Amino acid sequence: MASEDVKPSESAVTTIVNLAEEAKLAREGVKAPSYAILSVAKSLTAGGVAGGVSRTAVAPLERLKILLQVQNPHNIKYNGTIQGLKYIWKTEGFRGLFKGNGTNCARIIPNSAVKFFSYEQASKGILYLYQQQTGNEDAQLTPLLRLGAGACAGIIAMSATYPMDMVRGRLTVQTENSPYQYRGMFHALSTVLRQEGPRALYKGWLPSVIGVVPYVGLNFAVYESLKDWLIKSKAFGLVHDNELGVTTRLACGAAAGTIGQTVAYPLDVIRRRMQMIGWKDAASIVTGEGRSKAPIEYTGMVDAFRKTVRHEGIGALYKGLVPNSVKVVPSIALAFVTYEMVKDILGVEIRISD
Predict the structure, then answer these.
(1) Which is deepest, 72, 94, 270, 291, by most CB within 10 Å?
(2) pTM of the complete model
(3) Element at 335 (helix H, strand E)
(4) pLDDT, tens digit, for every residue of 281-299?
């Protein structure tokens, strides 16, 4: 009888345990995916807000950079950072300093979203393959592997949002004297599609993709590698409780941004110039030599490099580099501070480099 009494109780306990486990799995199965989606959405929101605020703060320098890149070499209007900003203020007023910024901010959120997701997936995939190859499950990403993951993320994000970047360049370049005016991002997109065809939305895509490899790749690689090196070596007494201060992180980000944009800058100049091909109403577009001063036509990236250097010299590949460099530090600083504030409000944990 005793044995018969034990069996039912054991069976009941087993049933209860099984039900508890099934309930736990059911809860995890339902809640884990939704929680992950919410977490990713919060992280992307934090990055998007930070990007929008930082880009808006340096919008005048961004616009001046693009104007310097594509201006007519026979009719110089913008002759430096200070003079260029004063000229824009005098001829177009306060709003002229922020022309094209709405489109720029509009592409930040989807760009950040795609870049974040792509970098995470690329990092996981590359790290998995690296661990399998080395046979070390504790192996971490090397600077070169970080460069590769960042490059993959940059290429995917650039390709996904390129049409918006293309029309942003045109909105930025047009002035009050332009014969034809784009009224906004969607008007510019529809007009380019109607007048120039779908392929026009991807003019300059190749140099953009090539340029994003060193730019985004170096941003990730330099920032994270420099930060890791400082923490491990405890150099210059900058590490406290195994953490870097805000000022040190900003310096790491500034170094990464400066190196990346300097290496990739000539490709950015060529990209902007190729984006202007086919737009006959640009007021300050690059023109060729001779009395006609007709806009230069490029057959491709290599041709654009060749004609730019031949007509204007090697220095033309770095037009606008100064205002672009000047904007790097405040842009990263504002992005970091804004990101931290939004992150605290939403309750998410994510690295500034992500």
Answers:
(1) 270
(2) 0.65
(3) helix 321-346
(4) 554 455 554 434 555 677 8
